[in-house]
């Protein structure tokens, strides 16, 4: 049985993540390094764990979370679909169970907001984990005066985290934003589609999605 550690230590997957991050750096996108891959993996697993899913589903969410951005090595555009095809080849080569491969690649292929849909529990957890990773350290542009709105929005986030309240059946993305760098309206302008997707993902898992910025509930 293929484990998350098998995936994490696979040199091919590491190279694809690192080189994909390099590609996005040249294109001016935020960091999508091994750190983002690990954060997405652990948060996706944590979400399913707190909701009482089976251990194997939790492990598959970790795997999908770690591999979800490998398609960036080809191009940012349509990276979810190219990444899913690449993941199939790698996981098939590693002789993962075909049903498990299907679950993982469905999640990877449905995580990007342009074409995404929470088609299974792993995809839903991945969407919530990926879209909640908003932080200052992901901005790679060293010149504040040349920030575009994406840079400003990410740089303005001083603290972020997604928490689950099982009793209330809610998943809450809580952000602390420096209003002198980015307004709440700027955040909505960039991330409204992502937040709508998070709401759909939460609904798939039988919970509600909340967005809290500077202590104020906005969704």
Task: Summarize the model shown.
The chain is α+β, with helices and mostly antiparallel strands and 219 residues long.
Description:
- This protein is an alpha+beta fold and 219 residues long.
- The protein has one domain (4-217): Hypothetical protein af1432 (Orthogonal Bundle).
- The protein is 54% helix and 11% strand.
- The chain is built from nine helices and four strands.
- The chain has helices at 4-8, 11-27, 34-50, 55-67, 79-93, 98-109, 121-131, 149-156, 184-204; strands spanning 157-165, 170-177, 208-213, 216-217.
- The chain has a four-stranded mixed sheet.
- α6 packs parallel to α7.
- The chain is globular, with a radius of gyration of 17 Å.
- The model has no long low-confidence stretch (mean pLDDT 94).
Q: What is the element string, with H for helices and E for strands?
A: HHHHHHHHEEHEE
Could you estimate the helical fraction of the residues in percent? 40-55%
The pLDDT mean sits at 94
What share of the residues does DSSP label as strand, in percent? 5-15%
Number of helices: 9
CATH architecture descriptor name: Orthogonal Bundle
Radius of gyration: 17 Å
CATH domain fold name: Hypothetical protein af1432
Ranges with pLDDT <50 over ≥5 residues? none
How would the global form be characterised? globular
Judged by helices, strands and strand pairing, the structural class is alpha+beta
Main β-sheet, spatial strand arrangement: 1-2-3-4
The count of DSSP E runs of length 2 or more, i.e. the number of strands, is 4
Terminal Cα separation, in Å? 40 Å
CATH class: Mainly Alpha
Number of domains: 1
**In this structure, how is the largest beta sheet organized?**
4 strands, mixed
